[in-house]
TrEMBL record:
This is Lipocalin-like domain-containing protein. It comes from Pedobacter ureilyticus.
Length: 67
């Protein structure tokens, strides 16, 4: 029996197994986006009722206009 190639073969098999486990872990760890995530959007026609313009200087309000 030739035992000189045995450790090299075991090392190659371990590398392949480690690579396969790494790839499986990476692909199974990714979470897929849920289609229901966008179901809470407000869809429709909207009208602007008011617009407020507020100006600040040094953290204090200096001017306020509401249209």
């Amino acid at each position: 029996m030739n035992m000189t190639n045995k450790p090299a073969e075991n090392l190659e098999i371990k590398k392949i197994i480690l690579l396969l486990l790494s790839v499986l872990t990476i692909f199974s760890a990714c979470k897929k986006d849920d289609a229901e995530r966008n179901s809470d959007r407000l869809i429709g026609r909207w009208n602007v009722e008011t617009v407020a313009y507020i100006e600040y200087e040094n953290g204090k309000e200096t001017e306020r206009n509401q249209y």
